[in-house]
């Protein structure tokens, strides 16, 4: 029963996030941002996440995952309100700040609560199953939210002309966030099994323990290197895929395809996760991860080279399919290496690393977009992923030799 409740909350929360995916850049541009300031604004978002990511993960381990997650929902609601009623760039930026706070505070909190509960009931031997469940629920919620998020502006223009084109997306997001908040407060309980009360460590000791764990674990360092390049890759695509996609569409009245496109690429992430879970027991997770990351880089390059809308869509979807497959061995490696007592902190560090990559991407891309075209920016992200594969391969091999020596 608890597993089903947690799954519902996780699914709804992902759906809420998905509502803005197909239109976020366009929403911010409607509020007055240009392509250049768009990258800067998303850089502010990444900076906020970076600053608060690790403290929020530690807070989740110390004061509880449930409380931390509820705080993130409040930040999400405030974010939507500021952007919704923002009639000036400064208000929109404040909304983005709260958006970043929500993202930072939520990362690792409910995920860790879910994983801890699963391990408590089923043990660590089935970590790939909970990793897949989380990935599938996240992709399903995001894809469903993205699909509806793409159609909401159409309905809003026809039925609610007094609203902004994308305001209905924000209104639905606020309502659903309130519903999830109520569900969590009333139906979700948090056991204290991660660390007995009498053994609770101080904040300083917790930070030292987490830092020492990461420093001495080469497998986790490998994942973080890859996650850093993933952040850069996601920054370049999430910022520019919408305007680039519209530039390839021959007719302006086909803009609803943004929602369908977002639904498809998020859906294939889910499918890739499911397939990866089916076959991961037959392969070494580290070797599987490295191979999938290399294939991902190839599809990024292929996507950047396309000028035809159909070929672009096919390559784009295949790229995210491989990305979804790679998520499973990544999650298995990270969670199998991480002790329960610091899981939320390590997951937050992983998210922090991704956001750092996104911040660098936002800064570099805000400059690069004035010099080169969008496909070149995407090609650079592919090169960074290839470099990360080479670095992590070396570290994985070094870690393997150390284990053999011991």
CATH architecture: Up-down Bundle
Low-pLDDT windows of residues: 193-199
Number of extended strands? 0
What is the CATH class name? Answer: Mainly Alpha
Report Rg.
21 Å
The number of helical elements comes to 15
End-to-end distance: 44 Å
The third-level CATH topology is Growth Hormone, Chain: A
> What is the multimeric organization of the chains shown?
single chain
Give your account of this protein's structure.
- By secondary structure, the protein is mostly helical.
- It has one domain (2-189, 204-405): MFS general substrate transporter like domains (Growth Hormone, Chain: A, Up-down Bundle), CATH 1.20.1250.20.
- Helix content is 82%, strand content 0%.
- The protein has 15 helices and no strands.
- The radius of gyration is 21 Å and the shape is globular.
Question: How are the secondary structure elements laid out?
Answer:
Blueprint: H1 2-18, H2 24-30, H3 35-63, H4 65-84, H5 89-106, H6 109-122, H7 127-159, H8 167-187, H9 203-215, H10 218-248, H11 257-279, H12 285-305, H13 309-337, H14 343-368, H15 374-405
């Amino acid at each position: 029963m608890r597993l089903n409740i947690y799954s519902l909350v996780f699914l709804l929360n992902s759906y809420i996030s998905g509502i803005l995916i197909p239109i976020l850049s366009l929403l911010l541009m409607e509020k007055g941002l240009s392509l250049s300031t768009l990258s800067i604004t998303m850089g502010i978002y990444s900076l906020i996440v970076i600053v608060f990511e690790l403290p929020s993960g530690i807070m989740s381990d110390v004061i509880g995952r449930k409380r931390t997650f509820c705080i993130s929902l409040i930040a999400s609601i405030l974010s939507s309100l500021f952007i919704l009623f923002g009639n000036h760039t400064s208000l929109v930026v404040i909304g983005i700040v709260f958006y970043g706070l929500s993202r930072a505070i939520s990362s690792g909190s409910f995920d860790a609560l879910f994983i801890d509960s699963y391990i408590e009931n089923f043990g660590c031997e089935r970590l790939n199953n909970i990793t897949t469940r989380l990935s599938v629920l996240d992709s399903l919620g995001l894809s469903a939210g993205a699909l509806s998020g793409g159609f909401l502006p159409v309905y809003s223009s026809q039925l609610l002309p007094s609203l902004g084109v994308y305001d209905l997306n924000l209104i639905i997001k606020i309502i659903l966030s309130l519903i999830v908040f109520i569900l969590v407060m009333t139906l979700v309980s948090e056991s204290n099994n991660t660390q007995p009360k009498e053994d609770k460590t101080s904040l300083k000791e917790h930070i030292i323990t987490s830092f020492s764990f990461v420093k001495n674990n080469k497998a986790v360092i490998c994942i973080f290197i890859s996650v850093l390049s993933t952040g850069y890759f996601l920054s370049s695509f999430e910022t520019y895929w919408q305007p680039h996609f519209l530039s390839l569409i021959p007719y302006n009245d086909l803009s609803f395809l943004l929602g369908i496109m977002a639904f498809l690429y998020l859906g294939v992430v889910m499918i890739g996760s499911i397939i990866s879970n089916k076959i991961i027991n037959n392969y070494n997770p580290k070797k599987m991860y490295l191979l999938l990351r290399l294939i991902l880089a190839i599809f990024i390059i292929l996507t950047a080279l396309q000028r035809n809308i159909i070929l672009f869509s096919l390559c784009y979807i295949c790229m995210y399919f491989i990305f979804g497959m790679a998520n499973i061995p990544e999650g298995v490696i990270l969670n199998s290496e991480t002790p329960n007592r610091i899981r939320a902190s390590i997951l937050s560090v992983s998210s922090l690393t991704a956001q750092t990559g996104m911040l660098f991407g936002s800064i570099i891309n805000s400059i690069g977009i004035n010099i080169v075209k969008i496909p070149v920016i995407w090609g650079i992200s592919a090169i960074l992923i290839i470099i990360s594969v080479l670095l992590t391969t070396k570290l994985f091999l070094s870690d393997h030799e150390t284990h053999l020596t011991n």
